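It is worth pausing here to work through a concrete case rather than discussing structure prediction in the abstract. The textbook approach is simple: state the sequence, then state the predicted structure, then interpret. We follow exactly that order.
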Amino acid sequence: MARRPFRVLSASDDAVRLAVRGACTCRELLLAAGVSRSAAAAAESAHRVRREGVPLQAPVALEPGDVVELLLEPADPEFPDVEPAAVAWEDPAGLLLAADKPCGLLVHSDGTGAECLVDRVQARLAADGRVREAHPVQRIDVDTSGLVLFSLAPEFQAAVDAQVADGSMEKVYLTLLAGSVDHGLTVERPVGRDRHDARRMHVGAGRPALTCISPVAPVRLPGGSEATLCTASIHTGRRHQIRAHAAWAGHPVVGDRLYGGPAASGLMLHAWREAFTHPLTGQRVHVEAPVPDRMALFVPEGAL
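Step two, the predicted structure:
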């Protein structure tokens, strides 16, 4: 990791304090800390970038030993009266949070008033006494469980969004596929809307998509049919990508009736692990969500 021109002194829901290590301008410092250009300009204009309490503007030169404070944009969130989200990882810097979404729950509101993961994350923040507004930087299908990363500070969200867009954010799913998968599968086929069924995605036309599937262990489903516990890594983020690619390869996800998978107690697809670079510290972060009960029954001892 390249040496950064600052050291993080502290980070909270209100402010980030940085000790300057190398000569730079105020704007250069903010950009090196992962703040987007637009957010840096907005913070400077609002006098939220300070040295010893004095607001700084972009041309100001900083010297080693200076301490710069970035006051985070004030939040005025709503705190719904719902069950707080299960948290898989909490950022020591307070800028990010990874929630563990149960299957059957929407990530975003659909406008009907139905409870969603965003509501539950806000309830978790309220329970912890934190006045921040949570914005998901990823989404997963309503019937898929597992990790969803949230930004809690708009100044740093663009740096995380960029990692989602360029594929540098690694995400690994745990899944149960129908049939015997005895070798790795790489499916690089475009995925787009199915013109005949708005609920489904079609493989063969649309946007480029790449999924890599690796077998972990063979299992037997109730009734005796074969299935395979697998990991699936996605290098693009298309809707239903794993589900559509797995079905196209002849091994639909167990419980995925939409794509021809065998019946089960739920969709056997779980956003299990992910890795990304922290926008402020530059360190690589690895997060894991526990295997849910509906899938743990099919994980042989020692397989993971």
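Step three, interpretation. The chain is about 15% helix and 35% strand. The first strand starts at residue 6 and ends at 11.
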